[in-house]
Specification:
142 residues; mainly alpha; 7 helices
Amino acid sequence: MTHEQSVPMASAEADMWEEGRAAARSGNHERAMTCFVREAEERTAQGSHGRAAIAFRTAAEQARMQGLAEQSEQLLYRAAAAYTHAAERHELSPGAAHQAWISAAKCFLQLQELDRTAWCIEAARRVAYQTHRNVGGTQTAS
């Protein structure tokens, strides 16, 4: 049996997220990073920015584990951008938008981008305030 026969090859339809998780568990951080980036790019193309953000952030961690600081930073910026894009979409529930802003802030904080971190936290506060105001207004109207 050849090595290629003993190791299953990923099909074109394979879930990059699951393949990335398996690679990360086995310590193959380079493969994991590649899978998570592909997953993120596919999700971005599909308009699933929240899932893309999570995949970019996970890829950034895999890059960091390999000592690839510059690549890790680039991936964190991409994650923050995807979280921001997701938060700005009007299809998200207020709770999901709030969480997306908080996650973007965490990415910027890791990058030591304090002004951007503060901007995201303020956006999260606005969502929370608006949600609280709407809930409070609904309760007093009944």
